[in-house]
Amino acid sequence: MARTQGSRAEITGPLIRDTARKLFARQGYAAVSMRQIAAEVGVQVGALYAYTPDKQALLADLLRVHMEELLAAWRDDPARPALDRLEAFLRFHIQTSLERPEAVFLSYMELRNLTPDNRSRIAALRRRYEDALEVILIAGEAEGTMTVPDTRLATMALIAMLTGVTNWYREGGRLDQERVVEVYWELVRGAVGA
């Protein structure tokens, strides 16, 4: 298949990434070939290698960019009460997860397909994000507004719960996003003994 007439690097590069993200999320990383990605994009398979060294690098880059964007977007204000900070984290996590469900799915389900070096780099970024929540829980314990028997375990459980919204939430469903946030906030408050 010939390159689409008029295609340009600033269009083709992001299109390759978006297509790979969608295919990896729908079919799984192992089931998707570079040939399939190229066919979906409308370029020769060899053209992909102008944008990525291989499929592994493409997956690692997708996960890295997702985590870096998440970390760059999250804003915490340690001067605020811990419960306010926790609610802000909850709202942020649910909103960003629902805005990019495919990226979230890859971040949690495709770590197993990364090489050890890539997995280590992505795990370090994930740890920074998890640490942002744990710092809030520790502050809540110190303020006496939260009771958490193990802040690390609570952090992991809360992130798993909040991320789970991407598995079932559908726009136009029984609950709108704001109601989902309200219900999750009640659940999270209970989970941290607030």
UniProtKB/TrEMBL annotation:
This is Transcriptional regulator, TetR family. PANTHER family: HTH-TYPE TRANSCRIPTIONAL REGULATOR BETI, HTH-TYPE TRANSCRIPTIONAL REGULATOR RUTR. Residues 33-52 bind DNA. Pfam families: TetR_C_24, TetR_N. It comes from Paracoccus denitrificans (strain Pd 1222). InterPro entries: Homeodomain-like_sf (IPR009057), HTH-type_TetR-like_transc_reg (IPR050109), HTH_TetR (IPR001647), KstR2_TetR_C (IPR041490), Tet_transcr_reg_TetR-rel_C_sf (IPR036271). Residues 10-70 form the HTH tetR-type domain. Keywords: DNA-binding, Transcription, Transcription regulation. One of its GO terms (molecular function) is DNA-binding transcription factor activity.
